From TrEMBL:
InterPro entries: Pyridox_Oxase_FMN-dep, Pyridox_Oxase_N, Split_barrel_FMN-bd. PANTHER family: FAD-BINDING, PUTATIVE (AFU_ORTHOLOGUE AFUA_6G07600)-RELATED. This is Pyridoxamine 5'-phosphate oxidase family protein. Residues 30-150 form the Pyridoxamine 5'-phosphate oxidase N-terminal domain.
Length: 203
């Protein structure tokens, strides 16, 4: 493979100067318009970095996935997951984070860059209790920049109109686990039990 781009000068020569619309949209705080989009989003991807590498973690809720505490601060409750704590482990060692917010049906994607800390303060956990259960921690994000992403990627992927791939034709999580575990995990049993297990452990 050839054609590697090795420095920013070559990269900028290839892409040129971005139009004003690509740069003036960047804010150093959560403006009222950005707040409206963030508070409407039930889903985001939390990206972190640590000594072992990078992590991108999906986060979702049945209401806003984060709370806007003020124009410079977001709070992301850590709901039930797989307990790998990759993102949280990264944050305690390197506070840099990026969040990408999606709203089903909308092409606009909101992006937030900043730094984060993790709190297990009882009053904060109680504030974010849902369905009678508090999160085990809350990721508190100090916002450094926020902007909206061009919608072309969502449009190309047809993300909200059924997409391109048929999920039923793809390997199931159970099948992948059975393969990766050398058949120590029964894939059919995992897939069969998963809907009930998930329904009983969302919170």
């Amino acid at each position: 493979m050839t054609g590697w781009i090795e420095d920013t000068a070559a990269l900028e020569a290839l892409y040129g100067t971005p139009r004003a619309a690509a740069t003036v949209k960047v804010a150093d705080r959560i403006t009222p318009a950005y707040r409206a989009w963030i508070e409407a989003s039930p889903f985001c991807i939390l990206s972190t970095v640590g000594p072992e590498g990078l992590d991108g973690s999906p986060r979702g809720d049945d209401g806003p996935v984060v709370a806007v505490l003020d124009e410079a601060t977001l709070a992301l409750p850590d709901r039930r997951g797989n307990d790998r704590i990759d993102s949280l482990r990264n944050i305690v060692r390197d506070p840099r984070v990026a969040l990408m917010f999606l709203i089903p049906g909308a092409g606009t994607v909101i992006r937030v860059n900043g730094s984060a800390r993790i709190s297990a303060a009882a009053d904060l956990l109680d504030r974010f209790a849902s369905h009678g259960k508090p999160p085990r921690s809350v990721v508190v994000v100090s916002v450094q920049e926020v902007y909206f992403q061009c919608a072309r990627a969502v449009m190309r992927a047809r993300l909200w109109d059924g997409g391109i791939a048929d999920p039923a034709a793809l390997p199931t999580p159970g099948r992948m686990l059975e393969t990766m575990s050398g058949a120590a995990i029964d894939g059919d049993a995992y897939d069969r039990d998963w809907p009930g297990r998930a329904a009983g452990s969302l919170w």
